[in-house]
Amino acid sequence: MFRQISDNIYIRVSNSFDSNIIYINAGERQVLVDAGTGMYPDTLNQDLLNIGSSVNVLTDIVLTHSHIDHIGGVLPIIANASPTLHLHKSEGDMINSGDMRLTLSSTFGVELPPMRIDSLLEEGQELCLGDVCFKVYSTPGHSIGSICLHIEEEGILITGDTLFPGGSFGRVDFPTGNPQQLVASLKRITEWDFVIALPGHMNAITSNAKKHAESSYQMASSMFRYQ
Ligand SMILES: [Zn+2]
Ligand SMILES: [Zn+2]
Predict the structure, then answer these.
(1) CATH domain 3-224 topology
(2) Looking at the predicted structure, is the pLDDT value of residue 184 above 90?
């Protein structure tokens, strides 16, 4: 079930291994941010139908990073539609060269076929899709290509697996994870202007999100002993 966050932005909070999935009605563009594992495609389509969209009309999927619990759901979607796939270039280049290791699919015993990332994102880029513009920030630490997406005019930050509510943050023990980079990324997040944070797992933070960011930064900083 999608929960409405603003006029055009919805989040489907996962209660399983799936990542959260964000849906944005951007006028002529219908956007998902992250796609879950893809184990329950019919449920996702039904949830989209309930808010006036569907898998078939999606035009874009932006991935906060390429772990299987975020990218796996792309497969059943591209079987029915042809959305543009967006991912930070440091993970997108690997996938485009046929190297799926960073998705961790084999670690989780899933065979993920090669796919084509159409749009390779970079730090500082303004990504405008239909009526909505995202500022793309590279926030490595959980993985090398992890990004945050800032919808500045709505005060919303999409944080992927970098920042979670209640002082928590993404793990750093997967390949390309890096505690020092994670602390630096969390510190950067505390410097941006937002009220709402939409993480890749756990609940949406619908008010005072910068307080959560500050406490995640403090927790990570003291746990990993980096400033
Ligand atoms: Zn995840
Ligand atoms: Zn992840």
Answers:
(1) Metallo-beta-lactamase; Chain A (3.60.15)
(2) yes
